[in-house]
Design goal:
Elements lengths: L6 H7 L8 E6 L7 H22 L3 H15 L9 E7 L2 E7 L6 E4 L5 H6 L7 E6 L4 E6 L4 E4 L25 H25 L4 E5 L1 H10 L6 E6 L7 H13 L1 H18 L3 E3 H10 L3 E7 L31 H11 L3 E5 L10 E5 L2
Parallel strand pairs: 5-8, 8-9, 11-12
Antiparallel strand pairs: 1-2, 1-4, 2-3, 5-6, 6-7, 10-13, 11-13
Helix pairs in contact: 2-3, 9-10
Length: 365
């Protein structure tokens, strides 16, 4: 992962403040979209910015910021391979940042450019794995809001390939119930191995679809229960792609809940492997040691550099400074440090991390 925190972003965060201050974060992916479409989206965003600015600043300072923004948009680099842009403009400062993040559009007026703004705008891509089980075969798909793509397993997807692996050969799969159970268990173990192989390449939440009986058997033996965010019972052996999409639609529409469940599963797994730092002190030490893989923090959680008695709750070193900006909040400093070292950030709803003192860090495995 390319670090999000760069010297250029540091310059924006350290910029001299002079109202009106404007931050515009917007998708910008010239290699994937037509120029005319992007120009139209930028025009719409510019109109919204101008309308909001003029409501609050009908003076020459507002006009100056609008003029600067128009000039920046007019001279954008359409040869970039980046995915978004962040524009910061004030009467005394201007900067355009080309980012590797997929983002949702956001306009901020008179709010200081913070590293959290970029994370809050990060677009959540609704991407997941679907494991479809039946008594005869299994299928694995990568799904999102638009497409389902079949992923070929590294082993046979049919149960009949495993009949001869039973202690005694059986000529007919409808033989005794005991033999069927033996073959089914072997089949499910092969499925679990295939799922693990795919999860090594695609670190995504997993849906498991199938009858209650076979899903129940699978859940008892799988090594990847922490990756499974939802099970859906039913016979979907003959279901079309559109039918599978419709079955999963209610869960995908509530993506935030699904994502948070997946993150909590990851925290549990990391904790079991002694790869989890919990609470500000542990997280600070792990992040400053460049061991931060995924920082998970509740939205709006702040941690001041001094308590009510003027003491430093955390050891900052010689100066209360960080590489890019003056430290006003320890959580922001941790966010910058994790991102600068190639880690990632996820924000959770308030109260979601009550068992983890509101902040946790998965360390590199």
């Amino acid at each position: 992962m390319n670090p999000i925190v760069t010297k250029e972003i540091g310059e924006v965060m350290d910029a001299v403040h002079f109202n009106p201050e404007l931050s515009l974060i917007i998708p910008f992916e010239p290699k994937m979209s037509k120029k005319a479409e992007m120009e139209y989206a930028l025009k719409i965003a510019l109109d919204k910015v101008e309308r909001q600015l003029r409501e609050r600043y009908s003076n020459e300072m507002g006009d100056l910021v609008i003029h600067k923004l128009r000039n920046i948009i007019k001279n954008l680099n359409y040869h970039t391979h980046k995915k978004s842009i962040a524009i910061y403009v004030s009467p005394v400062f201007e900067k355009i940042l080309y980012l590797d993040l997929l983002v949702e559009e956001k306009i901020i007026i008179d709010g200081r450019f913070e590293i959290r703004d970029l994370i809050y705008c990060k677009k959540q891509v609704h991407k997941y794995l679907v494991l479809l089980l039946s008594n005869k075969e299994f299928k694995i798909f990568i799904g999102n809001t638009e497409t389902f793509v079949r992923v070929l397993a590294n082993t046979s997807e049919s149960v009949y390939a495993y009949i001869n692996e039973a202690p005694e050969k059986v000529a007919n799969f409808s033989d005794t119930g005991e033999r069927k159970e033996i073959v089914m268990e072997k089949f499910l173990h092969h499925i679990d191995d295939s799922l693990g192989h795919i999860l090594n390449s695609y670190h995504l939440p997993v849906f498991v679809l199938g009858t209650k009986r076979i899903v129940g058997h699978f859940l008892k033996l799988t090594k990847y229960a922490n990756k499974i965010v939802e099970t859906v019972h039913g016979n979907y052996e003959e279901a079309s792609i559109d039918e599978l999409k419709n079955v999963l639609l209610p869960f995908v529409l509530d993506w935030k809940t699904l994502l948070q469940k997946n993150i909590l599963n990851q925290l549990d797994e990391a904790n079991d492997k002694n790869k989890l730092a919990v609470g500000m002190k542990e997280v600070w030490e792990a992040a400053m040691s460049q061991r931060g893989h995924l920082l998970v923090v509740e939205k709006n959680f702040m941690y001041p550099i001094q308590d009510e008695n003027g003491n430093d709750p955390i050891s900052w070193g010689d100066k209360p400074y960080y590489k890019f900006s003056y430290v006003k909040d320890a959580v922001d400093a941790i966010i910058e440090k994790v991102l600068a070292n190639g880690g990632d950030i996820e924000f959770m709803d308030e109260g979601a991390l009550s068992s983890y003192s509101r902040i946790a860090l998965i360390k590199f495995f």
